Structure prediction request, 71 residues.
Amino acid sequence: CLDLFNNRLADSKFFSGSAPLLSDLFLYPMIRAVYLTPEGRNLIDPMIALKRWLGMIEVRPSVTITRWPGE
Prediction:
């Protein structure tokens, strides 16, 4: 599944094209939860496109204000 996401993001900036849409905002918490585990980090770190996408989404104001304390 993560390979599919990475391949999709290799061809576009966001899942649905050049701008973030609901699909990106829906998938972010699930992919982020995977990334927060040691196993998930090991899987996602080599995936350049998916890692880039995580970085772009996690700095969005709607994401930063809804983070759990201490994250």
